[in-house]
Each structure stands twice: as C-alpha cells, then as structure tokens.
Amino acid sequence: MADGQVLVIDGRGHLLGRLAAIVAKQVLLGRKVVVVRCEGINISGNFYRNKLKYLAFLRKRMNTNPSRGPYHFRAPSRIFWRTVRGMLPHKTKRGQAALERLKVFDGIPPPYDKRKRMVVPAALKVVRLKPTRKFAYLGRLAHEVGWKYQAVTATLEEKRKEKAKIHYRKKKKLTVRHGLGGATGDTWQMMFVLTMVFGCLQGTADKATWLS
C-alpha cells in the first residue's frame, strides 16, 4: 500500500479483538485506516455472556460525579474505537496521533461506499473460530444496551445495496460491450477467491501480507 493511501476495511464477519489488534498496529505504523460496517463485527462467546460483561462495564463509573467518566459508548463503531484505543498508548503524543489516523463507521457512508473494501484474513470469524462455537453480533449487543440507530442503519444499508446492484449491472454490460467479457469461469472464480482472501485484485499477495 502506498504511503498516504487510506485503507478501508469491511468489519463484517471479523472478530472484535483480533481486528482491533491488527488495526492498532497499522495506525501506530503510520497508516490511515477506515473501518466500516462495525455493526457486523463478531464477538466470540454467546450473546448472553457478552451482554452480562457489558452490563458490568456500564456499572463502572466515578462514584461522586459520573459525568467525569468512564464513558460508556453505545454505538458499535464507538465500541470498536474504544477497543482499539485500549491497545494504543493513547495518553502520549504518538498514541494520540495514531488514534487520529483511525476512522470508524456504522454502515458504509459516502465516499466509502464506492471504495474497494478489504478484509483481514487473520481476524475473520470463519477462519479463527470453530464452526460449533457460539458468537454474538456487536450490532445486537449495542442495540440492547442503548444504541438507538440499528433500524436506521439497516434501512440505509438496504438502500446502498440496491444502488450497488444497479451499478454492478451497468458495469457488467459495459464490460461485455467493450469485449472484456471473454474471461473463463475459472478466471472469474480465481479473482473472486483473491478478493475474498486479500481484499484486492491488483498487485501481488506480498502487498497484502500485513493483513494476514
């Protein structure tokens, strides 16, 4: 990845702690990182257990003046942001600068809806968690502890997906029209696998090694 280039990561299907650890390292190295669809991030362990943990965290407050902290975020994006912050020396200038290089969002707002989004294979739930293990969605947890925008985010995501389908159909027609649709089924399948694993089609695998 070129210096100064923003790395956009789709948080859906990633494990919270593993993704946060990799993102924390990258922002410390000077890379700008944007994580979208934070409501789709997974947490290992069943939902009830994770909810009890968060409710216990909500009880941690300053006894004499709760408005002084600690602050308990409800939005999935802010919960993820706080997780990353806990892995950074955020009280130093270096840590503060690293934290400023991180942006987090619920859903996929513009302009990131038109950007190529990557995945982190080392943090994917399907790679790291046994199929029989239980897991929870960060979006559901946030909703049950006070996040008010689950329905709004879901509605906006549906609209975005519909627009993306229309754009994909137009792009496919143009590809066929310009004689670029001659690729075999095996070629497209290989390109799809590369996209799922490395989050990109261009470049070699070594450019994405930091994601693994």
TrEMBL record:
Coiled coil regions, renumbered to chain: none
Domain of life: Eukaryota
One term of GO molecular function: structural constituent of ribosome
Keyword terms, alphabetized: Citrullination, Ribonucleoprotein, Ribosomal protein
InterPro entries named in the record: Ribosomal_uL13, Ribosomal_uL13_CS, Ribosomal_uL13_euk/arc, Ribosomal_uL13_sf
Pfam families: Ribosomal_L13
Assigned GO CC terms: cytosolic large ribosomal subunit; GAIT complex; synapse
Biological process terms in GO annotation: cellular response to type II interferon; homeostatic process; lung morphogenesis; macrophage chemotaxis; negative regulation of formation of translation preinitiation complex; response to lipopolysaccharide; translation
Subunit: Component of the 60S ribosome. Component of the GAIT complex. Interacts with EIF4G1.
Role summary: Associated with ribosomes but is not required for canonical ribosome function and has extra-ribosomal functions. Component of the GAIT (gamma interferon-activated inhibitor of translation) complex which mediates interferon-gamma-induced transcript-selective translation inhibition in inflammation processes. Upon interferon-gamma activation and subsequent phosphorylation dissociates from the ribosome and assembles into the GAIT complex which binds to stem loop-containing GAIT elements in the 3'-UTR of diverse inflammatory mRNAs (such as ceruplasmin) and suppresses their translation.
The family this protein is said to belong to: Belongs to the universal ribosomal protein uL13 family.
Protein name per its UniProtKB record: Large ribosomal subunit protein uL13
Species per Swiss-Prot/TrEMBL record: Sarcophilus harrisii
Gene: RPL13A
